[in-house]
Structure formats: structure tokens, C-alpha cells
Amino acid sequence: LHAGWAVEGAVGSTYKVDATYLSPHVNMASRMMSACKQYGVFVLLSQEFEELLSKEAKDSLRHIDTVYVKGSSVAQQIYTYDVRHNGVDFFLLDRTEEGADKEADQYCPEIWSRDQDLKAMRDHITPEFKEAFRVGRQYYLDGKWDLAVDKLKEANDIMIQNVVDDGNIEEVAMYGMQIMDKKNQTENVCRLRHEIGDGPCEALISFMEKHNFVAPVDWEGVRPLLNK
Questions:
Q1: Which pLDDT score, from 0 to 100, does residue 98 have?
Q2: Could you tell me the CA-to-CA distances from 2 to 47, 87, 111 in Å, in that order?
Q3: Cα–Cα distance between 109 and 125 in angstroms, integer?
Q4: Which residues of 62-89 are buried (b: 16+ CB within 10 A; e: fewer)?
Q5: Distance (Å, rounded) from C-alpha 79 to C-alpha 188?
Q6: CA neighbor of 79 nearest in space, from 109, 111, 110, 45
Q7: Are strands 62-69 and 75-80 parallel, antiparallel or unpaired?
């Protein structure tokens, strides 16, 4: 998600005409979408988009990295909204169509903390996890990568433990505490550990690992996001 201006124009021929949009902001939105896979999240938001949100909405976001986007020299904080649908029984939280329409018409910023669906999809996010990630991310931005990797691994372990303890995902419940045993390197356990772990933690650790966990001498707390 990104916010900015764009120029709309028509492209095509006498047989078929489509609308297209041109702007550096369109490119930014495209890069945000593509980077979701890199960070293992469902949604990424740019700093410009985050600045338009209410305080309540901002408080529910997580600053996961600071990057240069290809074609731009402006450092950009990027955010995610942590939600997962696996293991959530939406049927139990179902509303009538009339009730859903009424809630939409009566939107207020408090929905971010009161909506039952959103709360259920964010059960894996705890204050302990948020604090561990915040500290680890700050060490990473400050160039203290030896400290950052330990704290980010701690945050990732907290995330995995939360999901295991919840027991809402059938396959995770089947393996249970085997997932927390770091010595267990069987294929399914490793796959589940990755699937329920925190994507941004793993992305930052992977980036630092490429530099042997030592920040470059010219590190300024920002890195290029090259993939579109």
C-alpha cells in the first residue's frame, strides 16, 4: 500500500483499450506488493501511507525495516499489519449481512482494537514479541548486528511459541513441542517452524547473515530494496 499521485491514460488499439497509470508512486506500490514475499507478510505499507492513518491504526502497525527503493534516494520506513487467517474460525465470529453493513457505516478508529475478526487474526502478536522485535530492529538499524541477531531470534522464538501454545492450527498441534526443539531438524518440523515464524525477523537475519553479521563501515540504518 502506498499513497501518491498518478497520471491516468488510455493504451491499446481500435480493438481494445485499457486504462493505465503512470507515476513513481505506482512503481512504489508495485514494489511494496512484491516485497511482501521477501518479508513473509500479507501486506506492506509505505511511510507515506502510514502518515495518512489515524493514531489507532498507526499503533497497530509494525515498522519492520528502512529501505531505499530502486530509483529513489529517499529512505523509506516500511510497515506491516500483522494478521494470519490460519487457525481462525471466522464462522464463530460471523455477523449477519445487515450487521456487517451497519458496522461498516459506523466505522470508528477503535475498530482496530475492538473488531473480533481482527483480534482473532492477531492472537499470535503479544507485547513480549513486539518489544523483542522492536529492540532487535533498533539494534539492526543502529549497526549493532551481533546484538540484533540474538534479539530477533528471540522474537522469532516467541512468535513460534505463541502459535504452538494456541494449538489452533491442526498440523502445528500435531507436532506440538517438537517444533520448539531446535535439535529436531526433520523436514516437516523445519517447514512448520518457518511457516509459523516471523517473516520480518527471518528477512533481517538473512540479510545480516550475508554480511557475516557485521554491519558495513558505511552503514546508515537503511538498505536498498532492489527487487521489484
A1: 79
A2: 8, 29, 22
A3: 20
A4: bbbbbbebeeeeeebbbbbbbbbeebbe
A5: 30
A6: 45
A7: antiparallel
Q: Tell me: pLDDT of 103 over 80.
A: no
State how beta strands 75-80 and 223-225 pair: unpaired
Question: What is the pLDDT of the chain when averaged over all its residues?
Answer: 88
Let me know: does 175 contact 188? Beta carbons within 8 Å. Answer: yes
- Residue whose cell numbers read 497520471: 7
Label residue 129 exposed, middle or buried (CB < 10 Å: 0-12, 13-18, 19+): buried
Burial label, 192 (beta-carbon count in 10 A; 0-12, 13-18, 19+): buried
Residue type, 23: S
Residues facing residue 8 across a β-bridge: 21
Is pLDDT at 102 greater than 90 in this prediction?
A: no
* Among the listed residues 221, 202, 214, the one whose alpha carbon sits nearest the alpha carbon of residue 67: 221
The phi, psi pair for 89, rounded to 5°, reads: -95, 90
pLDDT at 93 over 70: no
